[in-house]
Specification:
It is a single chain. The chain is 31% helix and 24% strand. By secondary structure, it is an alpha/beta fold. It folds into 2 domains: 4-125 and 319-330, 3-Layer(aba) Sandwich (Rossmann fold); 130-314, Dihydrodipicolinate Reductase, domain 2 (2-Layer Sandwich), CATH 3.30.360. The strands form 3 sheets. A 7-stranded mixed beta sheet has the order 3-4-2-1-5-6-7, sandwiched between helices. The protein has a 6-stranded mixed beta sheet with strand order 11-8-12-15-14-13. Strands 9-10 form a two-stranded antiparallel sheet. A hairpin with a 6-residue loop joins strand 14 (290-297) and strand 15. Helix 1 (12-23) crosses helix 9. The longest helix has 18 residues, at 313-330. The protein starts with a strand and ends with a helix.
Length: 332
């Protein structure tokens, strides 16, 4: 039986999951990649010299674990089928969200919610949400979060290679004195030398990304937590930075909170109160850790701190998926 079946192969999340599995020494024979009906025999890299042939999802009967990285329609159609056949299913798409017996999990924050996965399916949040909640995991457990207010600054790789190519091309045009706009591009305005207050499409007053923060944080932490997030595109190629104000029910001190955050697996604290004593996006590219800096007391609320998180969020999301899957596979 296949141990890991990855659904989707052209998106950044799938590529990072495959990269992590190869780095951890998982044999290529234990990993298979599937997509919607495929033309020919497309290949995907696995490790430094390996390749895997992408197969049609219709060829997959079962596996020990199935990870949906893209294609909402495929997750909606096949997730229950594979779970019923005995697979542990991790869903990273927007399908199946909000169902009471399919919990939303961030490793280290609400692992006990795996007990609610009656269908054998678990949802994981948007990579940006994973980065934020992963960075404050210890705070969520110890102090109980009451509210989250955040501003997410997101690089072009939210749209994968196409997004980075658009940023590169628009930067090049401007430097060559071609100031033609790019209203028809992925970001609706020219991203080079600009900040765009829109990440993903609008749904009412919010963008989908802002809505996802609100919905998914509540699913992970509990519906009573108050959430307000603004998201903007910035002219960087990789990663995201999030300024977050965290209000808690229990008394919280910035110094003690820093010590708690340092205990969190997968988190690195760089919090020197000096010029350059923090993590920026160029520091986190290619890294799987969440970097936390600028930890300060928030005096506008009774119990609150402010902090800066930076990360290569696609790698962070891949790490979370494999961490959740490890715990999920232990449960019979």
């Amino acid at each position: 039986m296949i141990k890991y079946a990855i659904i989707g192969y052209q998106n950044t999340l799938a590529k990072n999951i495959l990269k992590l599995l190869a780095a951890r020494g998982v044999a290529a024979a234990e990993v298979a990649v599937f997509d919607a009906k495929v033309q020919g025999e497309p290949k995907v890299s696995y490790g430094e010299i390996g390749e895997l042939t992408v197969r049609s999802i219709e060829d997959l009967s079962t596996a020990e674990a199935v990870i949906f990285t893209s294609h909402d329609n495929l997750a909606a159609r096949y997730a229950v089928k594979f779970a019923s056949a005995g697979a542990k299913v991790i869903n990273a798409t927007n399908a199946l969200e909000g169902e009471s017996d399919i919990p939303m999990i961030v490793g280290g924050v609400n692992d006990n919610a795996l007990e609610q996965a009656a269908k054998g399916i678990v949802n994981v949040p948007n990579p940006l949400v994973t980065m934020l909640l992963g960075g404050v995991a210890e705070l969520a457990v110890k102090y109980q979060i009451k509210s989250v207010r955040a501003t997410a600054l997101v690089a072009a790789d939210i749209e994968g290679q196409d997004g980075m190519s658009e940023l590169y091309n628009s930067t090049r045009r401007i430097l060559m004195n071609d100031i033609t706009g790019n209203a028809d591009g992925l970001f609706h305005k020219t991203l080079a030398f600009n900040i765009i207050p829109q990440v993903s499409s609008f749904i009412g007053e919010e963008t989908f990304t802002e809505w996802a923060f609100n919905s998914q944080i509540k699913q992970v932490l509990g519906g009573d937590v108050k959430v307000h997030v603004n998201a903007a595109m910035i002219p960087s190629f990789v990663g995201a930075g999030i300024y977050a104000d965290i209000e808690t029910f229990a008394d919280i001190d910035a110094g003690e909170a820093e010590d708690d955050i340092k205990k969190t697996k997968g988190v690195l604290v760089i919090n020197r109160q000096e010029d350059g004593g923090y993590a920026s996006l160029t520091d986190v590219q290619g890294e799987s850790s969440i970097f936390v800096s600028r930890i300060r007391q928030d005096m506008t609320v009774e119990n609150g701190i402010s902090l800066w998180l930076a990360g290569d969020y696609w790698q962070v999301a891949a790490q979370n998926i494999l961490a959740v899957l490890k715990q999920f596979l232990k449960r019979k």
